[in-house]
UniProtKB/TrEMBL annotation, chain A:
Annotated source species: Brevibacillus fortis
This protein's name: Phosphoserine phosphatase
Signal peptide positions on this chain: none
GO molecular function annotation: phosphatase activity
SMART domains xrefs: PP2C_SIG
Keyword Aminoacyl-tRNA synthetase part of the UniProt annotation: no
Domain of life: Bacteria
Residue stretches making up the PPM-type phosphatase domain: 117-332
TrEMBL record, chain B:
Matches recorded under InterPro entries: HATPase_C_sf (IPR036890), HATPase_dom (IPR003594)
Protein name stated in the entry: ATP-binding protein
Natural source organism: Brevibacillus fortis
Superkingdom assignment: Bacteria
UniProt xrefs under Gene3D superfamilies: Histidine kinase-like ATPase, C-terminal domain
Length: 333, 142
């Protein structure tokens, strides 16, 4: 193919095949087909190529010669489809690269590292089900050994969720300056989200403030999946209490503060519904089953625990993540 | 080749057999122009699509096939004219996803790819005008 044109190659394969009818010529034809496809040679051109190759090999009966007009005419439609698919492919690649940029931008909205405090471990696993995630989490530095932690799930996935996420991020950033209590934080966020997103969307969130000296966690929730508290002394998991409307649903929602004190080896687990809605074959995982899996990870460091649970659930769901998945583990040491 | 030897032909599209006539005129002319067999068929197919849009959606209209020359190049120009309903969204009609819909304007993306130049003007309620050109590889004879 390097030394002669594909037209000559085609004639040669055809000539050899007509005299010997061997499988090797058929193999050669298949390889040539791949090559022609890679060069975007259209079906109608190949029809024509075949007609001309026949002329070179012998006396072509008139009815055979004429029949190629019909074949060419039909192949033109296939050619149009072929060209159209190519243009779709190009457009698809362009969209893929736009999504990759969006994904990188979204990644930059999430914290690149977890805060470090004495006697406290923090572990995070956050995985997007598709390219763009609807889960958001952040750590916000506060005064006197305290830090804020937000975990949120934006309804829907993909681009709309990502755009909404950037708004939530900037709102938290600016409200963070004001050192608000968790209930006030959600109250303000609710107003901002309500005004700025499509009425069909909403955001569920848990916002908390952890005091690393007292190991006291004060938080409020807005329609968010309750997390878990592990009491080491009892060896038991408890649901985190809390209720309040999701952000963006109703303008005057009020939120209440809950307070928990962590003893040594107690663990706080904050999550999004991607964790609890993991599917085991056709069945959604029950909360009790989730606790059962969590139990097996107790005693590990916070990050190991988060990783371990993610791996277990991924295996359970046969590596098919249906929803964005985020888990934050805080462990007092 | 001297372009002046060929005179433009206009075919009235009123019934389905007129589509065949238009194809035939286009094929003959492209043959005389020295276009290869595939290009002949592509020109005929393009005429077919344009004429069919007229026949199916505008009812009546014309296809004009004329030789043109520009900057030393010679080619065939096909103009489709109708006073039909017009195409509401030209961008959509030229989108590949639309081409299989069978609706008005379907087939235009294919025509655009088969030809070298493509121009469309459409006004709702007034009609549509499509002008396409296929250039010949042969240069004009001076």
């Amino acid at each position: 193919m390097v030394t002669r044109s594909f037209q000559e190659e085609y004639v040669k394969i055809l000539r050899d095949y007509l005299s010997a009818q061997g499988e090797d010529q058929l193999y050669g034809a298949q390889q040539l087909g791949k090559w022609m496809l890679s060069r975007d040679i259209s079906p109608e051109e190949i029809t024509d190529l075949h007609a001309r190759a026949l002329e070179q090999l012998g006396e072509v009966p008139e009815f055979v010669r004429s029949s190629f007009s019909i074949l060419t005419e039909v192949m033109i439609e296939y050619g149009n489809e072929h060209r159209s698919v190519n243009s779709w492919r190009n457009r698809h690649q362009q969209m893929e690269s736009e999504i990759a940029v969006a994904k990188a931008m979204q990644q930059s909205l999430l914290p690149s590292e977890v805060p470090v405090y004495p006697e406290l471990e923090i572990g995070v696993v956050s995985i997007a089900a598709k390219q763009i995630s609807g889960d958001y989490y952040d750590f916000i530095g506060q005064n006197e050994g305290r830090f804020g932690v937000a975990i949120a799930d934006i309804t829907g996935k993909g681009m709309p969720a990502a755009m909404c996420m950037s708004m939530v991020k900037y709102a938290i950033d600016s409200l963070g300056q004001m050192e608000l209590g968790p209930d006030e934080m959600l109250h303000h966020l609710n107003r901002i989200v309500g005004r700025n997103i499509d009425p069909s969307m909403f955001v569920t969130m848990l916002f908390g403030s952890y005091d690393s000296k007292e190991h006291c966690f004060r938080y409020a929730t807005a329609g968010h999946e309750p997390g878990f508290l592990y009491r080491s002394a009892e060896g038991k998991f408890y649901d985190l209490e809390g209720r309040g409307n999701a952000l963006g649903l109703c303008p005057n929602s009020e939120y209440e503060v809950q307070e928990i004190r962590l003893e040594i080896n107690d663990v706080l687990i904050l999550l999004t519904d991607g964790v609890t809605e993991c599917k085991n074959n056709r069945y959604y995982l029950q909360r009790e089953e989730l606790v059962h899996h969590l139990q097996k990870e107790v005693g590990e460091s916070a990050q190991k625990m988060a990783n371990g649970l993610y791996n277990r659930l991924l295996l359970l769901s046969q590596f098919d993540l249906l929803d964005d998945y985020t888990m934050i583990v805080l462990r007092r040491t | 080749m001297v372009v002046a030897d060929f005179s433009p032909e206009t075919i009235n599209i009123e019934q389905e057999s007129d589509i065949v006539t238009a194809r035939q005129v286009g094929r003959n002319m492209s043959k005389q122009f020295g276009f290869g067999t595939i290009t002949q068929s592509r020109i005929a197919t393009s005429i077919s699509e344009l004429a069919r849009n007229i026949y199916l959606y505008a009812g009546t209209g014309t296809i004009t096939i004329s030789p043109i020359e520009r900057e030393g190049m010679i080619g065939l120009q096909i103009t489709a004219n109708d006073s039909g309903p017009g195409i509401p969204d030209i961008r959509q009609a030229l989108d590949d996803g639309y081409s299989t819909s069978g609706a008005l304007g379907a087939g235009l993306p294919g025509v655009r790819r088969m030809m070298d130049e493509f121009e469309i003007h459409s006004t709702l309620g007034e009609g549509t005008r499509v002008v396409v050109v296929k250039w010949s590889d042969q240069a004009k004879e001076e």
